[in-house]
Design goal:
Blueprint lengths: L13 H11 L1 H34 L5 H5 L1 E4 L4 E4 L7 E9 L5 E3 L18 E7 L5 E5 L5 H10 L1 H4 L1 E6 L2 E6 L7 E5 L5 H4 L7 E3 L4 E5 L2 E5 L3 E2 L7 E4 L9 E7 L2 H25 L18 H15 L17 E3 L6 E3 L1 H10 L1 H8 L1 E2 L5 E2 L1 H13 L4 H69 L1
Antiparallel strand pairs: 1-15, 2-14, 3-11, 3-15, 4-8, 4-10, 5-6, 5-9, 7-8, 11-12, 13-14, 16-17, 18-19
Subunit structure: Homopentamer.
Family: Belongs to the FliD family.
Pfam family, one: FliD_C
Length: 462
């Protein structure tokens, strides 16, 4: 085993070598700081891309024709209406005399069941079950069947037969899946008694289903369902409760401008958020704050160009052959300050939509005589795409940062290896120095003792 006495003679120990290496490693600190800066800048550009994509997600709603053709129905309690974009405008008075109900067969008591729906009934036989217009399904009963398993067998073919079973007070209760006057049909062989044994024949009670009866603007209508799609075109009437005699609901179908308003407001909010973020990234900072407030992408020419161009594009006039609306200010969107923040007055937009919705729609998106998409949305999208697409400016920026970061990592690894070797060199060199000084001290001691001996011998001879 070797013992390291480094520093015991020269005074240069591991602590002094560590201090020496700290000076040698200063370039490593600088490289690490440079790498951190590049990673921060790359992440900042990725954040810019995310915000630009969010901006387009907000504005692209305004290129969808459904946003502008949306209709709404207001009013109604016992009856309501569900609209589509093609629903006709108008006022509809709806009076509900009767809701549609389902046909039911309430079975009689099943003697063999007693009070336990899980008890085997010991019955055998078959019967067929369906409602009008549905396929008849055969239900086979075996000795081990209980009231519960029989209900399960009926329900297993409900989709085909149109009948569903439930158990109430150990009785089988059959219900039509659909409303209306459709009867539940139950049939058995001529010599079979299985239906009587299950309480589905002589002791059963039949409650006939009813059709819905109502009036729309004085026109009497009868339908099998409480959800009616073929009375007012492209519109569903939903019946929920019968009216008292002489009462009715008044429902108005009109254009729904709220979707356009929400879309414009969503764009304005996201634009303001994006521009604020960009401004923060471009802050130059000042000597008074020690540079702490300097933006991550301060002085970046590409980001400055993005900020300036977006601000100009949002506020400038458009040349559009399909609309008289030339800029967003005519739709209630205007700048608040010199930084380009926007404000939105929904009343101006609503006024334009009531005046001529097609003009508003064409401002955001339309096609020119050559069939090319024109308008505010394509213009903004084209510019955003030049930055955020897979071949855009931001991709080029982040790829460049990634290459530089990889190169710095290689430099860091190579430099760290050199520092490891240099530290080993220092330890070896100073260890050898200690050994040399120790040997020199030993030789000096021997020489001194020899000289002393010679001096003593010379003195005794005198």
């Amino acid at each position: 085993m070797s013992i390291n006495f480094m520093g015991s003679y020269s005074g240069i120990d591991q602590t002094m070598i560590d201090q020496l290496m700290a000076v040698e490693k200063r370039p490593l600190v600088q490289m690490s700081e440079r790498k951190t800066t590049m990673e921060t800048q790359k992440n900042a550009w990725n954040d810019v891309r995310t915000r630009l994509n969010n901006l387009f997600e907000k504005i692209k709603v305004l290129q969808n024709s459904d946003t502008f053709s949306s209709m709404k129905a207001t009013g109604g309690e016992s009856a309501t209406m569900t609209t589509s974009k093609n629903s006709p405008e108008g006022v509809y008075e709806i009076s509900v005399q009767q809701l549609a109900t389902k046909t039911s067969v309430i079975g009689g008591k099943i003697v063999e069941a007693s009070s336990d729906s899980t008890k085997a009934l010991g019955l055998t036989g078959t019967f067929k079950l369906n409602t009008e217009g549905k396929d008849a399904k055969e239900i086979e009963i075996v000795e081990t069947d209980t009231v519960r398993t029989i209900a399960e067998k009926i329900n297993a073919v409900s989709k085909e037969s149109g009948v569903r079973a439930s158990i109430i007070d150990n009785r089988l209760v059959l219900n039509n899946l659909e409303t209306g006057t459709k009867a539940i049909q139950i049939a058995e062989e001529a010599d079979s008694t299985i239906l009587n044994q299950l309480g589905l024949k002589d002791t059963s009670e039949v409650i006939e289903g009813k059709n819905a009866k109502f009036k729309v603007n004085g026109v009497s209508v009868e339908k099998e369902s409480n959800s009616v799609k073929d009375v007012v075109e492209y519109t569903t009437i939903n019946l929920t409760k019968a009216h008292a005699a002489g009462s009715s609901d008044t429902i108005t179908i009109s254009k729904d401008t709220s979707k356009v308003e929400e879309a414009v407001k969503g764009f304005v909010d996201q634009y303001n958020s994006t521009m604020t973020f960009i401004s923060d990234q471009l802050k130059a900072g000042s000597p008074d704050d020690g540079g702490d407030k300097r933006g991550t992408l301060a002085s970046d020419g590409s980001l400055m160009r993005l900020q300036s161009t977006l601000r100009t594009m949002v506020t400038s006039s458009l040349s559009n052959e399909n609309t008289a609306i030339k800029d967003l200010s005519q739709l209630g969107v205007s700048t608040v300050d010199r930084f380009g923040q926007l404000t939105f007055d929904a009343s101006k937009l609503k006024e334009k939509l009531e005046e001529d919705p097609v003009q508003v729609q064409n401002f955001f998106m339309s096609k020119n005589s050559e069939g090319k998409d024109i308008g505010f949305v394509p213009k903004i999208n084209s510019y955003i795409d030049s930055f955020s697409s897979s071949t855009g400016i931001i991709k080029g920026k982040t790829d460049s940062f990634e290459r530089s970061i990889k190169e710095v990592n290689k430099q860091v690894d190579a430099f760290a290896l050199r520092m490891e070797r240099k530290e080993k060199y220092y330890i070896s060199m100073f260890s050898k120095l200690d050994t040399a000084m120790m040997e020199a001290e030993s030789q000096m001691g021997w020489l001194t003792s020899q000289i002393s001996a010679l001096s003593a011998s010379s003195g005794s001879k005198k």
